[in-house]
């Protein structure tokens, strides 16, 4: 449940922030005439996201045996990559509000009367469809790993919309930096689990050698089928009997993220001096 909540809330939050920033900017600059364009873009973006979910599910249901393992492993690997780009974006993000405002301002300055509408529509539609497609991939990866929880996913969407509304329309007292930091840590561990699970699927398909399989077996201590074990499996990629290749993939991913984090923090320090 928590992993579904984390993914949908994080993805919806990013789209909500973009929408909130654009609407706030239009209100502040007395360009309310373009607000309908924002709402149209939201509707089209959501519809396109739902369509992508049906298309993905249709193709995903047509695989069996070795092809199924390859497809699931590839989906998990793509999801881990997309999560990594999201994590890096959150690490670097400091002026999200101003960046989006500049984009909208640039579109509003277009000479042709229809161009501002098109520009604003593209900004909102792109934000929603990007997050929508990523959510579809992430939830399918979760489904392969441990199963998707509808309640958790729905609560994540509701929570993200509420946060976006409160931050930009009401109190504006929510500390996005702390929120991003906490979610980043959880997402790093989740992405590491997906990367390790993808290698497991490739092992099952006979594409990779696990080197030592299993490296150890602690299923008698904490089974993957237990309440705690199933939660850890879905959230952090826990395996009671992983191969050496899975362990290497997990640890290597954490090492790469730590290296990137240190590099980003170092560049921030240099920029502030």
Describe this structure in words.
- It is globular and about 65 Å long.
- The longest helix is centred in the middle third of the chain and has 31 residues, at 115-145.
- The chain starts with a helix and ends with a helix.
- Helix content is 78%, strand content 0%.
- The protein is built from nine helices and no strands.
- The mean pLDDT is 76.
- It has 273 residues and is mainly α.
Number of strands: 0
Series of secondary-structure elements, N-terminal to C-terminal: HHHHHHHHH
Quickly give the structural class: mainly alpha
DSSP strand (E) fraction?
Answer: under 5%
Q: Determine the number of helices (DSSP H or I, runs of at least 4 residues).
A: 9
pLDDT < 50 stretches? none
Radius of gyration: 21 Å
Main pleated-sheet profile: none
Sum up the overall morphology in one term.
Answer: globular
In short:
The chain is mainly alpha-helical and 273 residues long. The chain is built from 9 helices and no strands.
Provide tags for this entry.
273 residues
List strands and helices in order, with pairings.
Elements: H1 2-28, H2 35-60, H3 65-92, H4 96-108, H5 115-145, H6 150-168, H7 176-204, H8 227-236, H9 244-272
Helix pairs in contact: 1-4, 1-5, 1-6, 1-7, 2-5, 3-5, 3-7, 3-9, 4-5, 7-8, 7-9
């Amino acid at each position: 449940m928590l992993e579904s909540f984390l993914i949908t809330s994080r993805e919806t939050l990013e789209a909500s922030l973009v929408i909130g920033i654009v609407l706030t900017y239009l209100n502040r600059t007395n360009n309310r005439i373009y607000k309908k364009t924002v709402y149209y873009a939201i509707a089209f973006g959501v519809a396109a996201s739902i369509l992508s979910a049906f298309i993905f599910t249709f193709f995903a249901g047509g695989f069996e045996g070795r092809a199924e393992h390859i497809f699931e492993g590839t989906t998990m690997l793509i999801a881990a990559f997309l999560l990594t780009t999201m994590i890096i974006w959150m690490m670097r993000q400091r002026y999200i509000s101003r960046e989006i405002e500049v984009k909208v301002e640039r579109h509003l300055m277009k000479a042709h009367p229809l161009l501002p509408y098109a520009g604003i529509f593209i900004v909102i539609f792109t934000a929603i469809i990007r997050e929508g497609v990523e959510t579809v991939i992430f939830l399918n990866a979760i489904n392969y790993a441990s199963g998707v929880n509808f309640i958790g996913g729905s609560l994540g969407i509701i929570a993200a919309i509420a946060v976006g509304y409160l931050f930009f329309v009401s109190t504006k007292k929510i500390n996005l930096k702390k929120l991003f930091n906490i979610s980043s840590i959880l997402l790093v561990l989740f992405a590491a689990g997906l990367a390790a699970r993808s290698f497991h699927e490739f092992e099952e398909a006979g594409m990779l050698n696990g080197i030592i399989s299993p490296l150890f077996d602690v299923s008698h201590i904490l089974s993957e089928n237990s309440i705690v074990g199933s939660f850890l499996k879905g959230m952090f990629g826990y395996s009671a009997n992983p191969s050496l290749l899975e362990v290497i993939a997990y640890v290597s991913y954490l090492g790469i993220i730590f290296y990137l984090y240190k590099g980003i923090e170092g560049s921030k320090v240099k920029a502030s001096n």
